Amino acid sequence: MAEQSNRLIITITCPDRIGIVHAVTGIITGTGSNIEDSQQFAEPTSNRFFMRIEVTSPLERAALEAAMAPLTDEFSMDLHVYDAAASPPILVLVSRLGHCLNDLLYRQSIGSLGGKIAAVCSNHPDFEPLVKAYGIPFHYLPVSDENRREQEDAILAIGEEHGVELVVLARYMQILSPEMVRQLEGHAINIHHSFLPSFKGGRPYHQAYERGVKLIGATAHYVTSELDEGQIIEQEVTRVDHRATPLQLTAMGRDLECIALARAVEWHLSHRVMISNNKTIVFR
pTM above the 0.90 mark? Predict the structure, then answer.
């Protein structure tokens, strides 16, 4: 048996029909690869099939993808093979609330992020000392109505320079232009400080307090042209009662934001998230 030294991840989406799993696993095992984990889901409303497979293989990533290429025409399949050991570069955008940024930096420092923060951009200089303490480039890019296009071009240029595969809006309090959103579609994750779709806009925890909510939460979602309406990747909630003040709700909410965002980033980087129209399929 050939040495299986390459850990690879295969993702598949296609119209649902009989024989997909048989055909896919047949090619994989025919290459001498071993399937270590396989998850699949057939979505009845869209008649779409989703699959994520982890394998060890004697083949390199490109060779296994080429071996599976005949399936793409036969099943109208969108198929990708990824190196499971890769650490994709990440660009983090932040404004003046640094809890999510700090959490991501710490997770990377202990090896639990699954990617590498290549740079941090901010429209405020506040977190330059924090970011540089981790040895990561910090770019202060102030923005106004007059220079928004130039500022966004600078962000995109920094991402291109570092080969960034994911942009994370870690409480970046600026609305991205439609042009920038189009360039980042499917590759930008935002954290929203509420359990969507409730309490949009400013001071969400004060809104929650005034409504006497019994649950508060945070939502990590993809960035789309519709503000805070992107496909939801993860949501985290905690139960509260009438004793919690707005400040206490805010503190609890920040913890939830960190958890939800970190999970969404990790799942995206490990190719566990697949977009299906207005929602996501997440293989955990």
Answer: yes
